[in-house]
UniProtKB/TrEMBL annotation:
Source domain of life: Bacteria
Organism name: Candidatus Eisenbergiella merdipullorum
Keywords: Membrane, Transmembrane, Transmembrane helix
Pfam families the UniProt entry points to: ABC2_membrane_4 (PF12730)
Protein name: ABC transporter permease
Keyword Membrane part of the UniProt annotation: yes
Entry's transmembrane regions: 58-78, 105-132, 144-165, 177-201, 221-244
PANTHER family to which the protein is assigned, alphabetical: INTEGRAL MEMBRANE PROTEIN-RELATED, MEMBRANE PROTEIN
Length: 267
């Protein structure tokens, strides 16, 4: 397993798709702060500070930027083995296919933690340049832990989509868009069972995010239901992982052109 993890990290260092997450998470605090500048003065928050910016970033990351980035990158890690015709070489190694996919998921989860730390740094930089108030070591530590925890939980929620669309040739881009839609749906769940049990909502609740203050939830979310929703995602991930089988590997056979020297021309 350790060899698989090292190999996947080396692949990530060489691939340009990693820039998707780097750029997306850098844009998140900029977009969130910029939205405060363009809204009508009547609805603008006059007390917008670092705490507000961090809350916006956690919401934006979970709803849009992380689902797109993680499914695209994680799906690419799986899809590239078939695209580059390297899966047939990996299958000769004495390791099961589910374990191979599990190694790719572990790398994606680790990447989500790094993305969380990166998002904290970019948020502090954006808020400092914008001149926001409320920056302190305690705020950065408390809100930073929440950003990283939300990134980790969001990655767990995205794992079924990574496995499904990563194993469908060239479908990880469509999978990232579908996951973005699923993440965007948390905007509409303000009460009832789905407020807490919906996986993307559960990711925020378990990270300590205040849904009532930000999402306008009509009732306090239930941590028990959030745990149930997250457990359902993990069970689904495990089922997909155990039932996964390598697809049929087909090489790109070049068509033979006409045979040379079929016969001699008669004089």
């Amino acid at each position: 397993m350790w060899s698989i993890l090292k190999g996947e990290w080396r692949k990530l260092r060489r691939c340009q798709i990693l820039l998707v997450g780097i750029v997306a998470l850098a844009l998140c605090p900029v977009v969130q702060y910029g939205s405060q500048l363009i809204v009508n003065p009547e609805i603008r928050d006059p007390n917008y500070n670092f705490v507000s910016l961090f809350a916006n970033v956690i919401w934006g990351n979970t709803q849009i930027f992380l689902p797109i980035s993680l499914v695209m990158i994680g799906g690419w890690l799986i899809d590239r083995e078939n695209t580059n015709d390297t899966m047939k070489n990996l299958l000769t190694v004495p390791i099961s296919y589910p374990k191979l996919l599990g190694g790719k998921l572990i790398v994606t989860v680790s990447l989500s933690l790094l993305f969380g730390l990166y998002s904290v740094a970019v948020t502090v930089l954006t808020g400092t340049i914008a001149g926001l108030d409320g920056l302190s070591a305690a705020i950065v530590l408390r809100q930073g832990v929440q950003v990283v925890a939300a990134a980790f939980n969001t990655c767990l929620v995205c794992m079924p989509m990574i496995l499904i669309f990563g194993q469908m040739h060239g479908a990880y881009l469509g999978g990232s868009l579908l996951t973005f839609f699923l993440g965007y749906c948390i905007l509409f769940f303000k009460s009832g069972f789905l407020l807490s049990a919906y996986p993307f909502s559960a990711a925020l609740i378990l990270a300590g995010f205040d849904m009532q203050a930000y999402n306008g939830a009509a009732q306090p979310p239930s941590i028990v239901l959030a745990l149930v929703g997250m457990a359902a995602v993990l069970i689904l991930t495990m089922m997909i992982l155990l039932l996964s089988r390598p697809g049929k590997i087909t090489g790109n056979n070049k068509k033979k052109k006409g045979k040379k020297g079929r016969g001699r021309r008669r004089a």
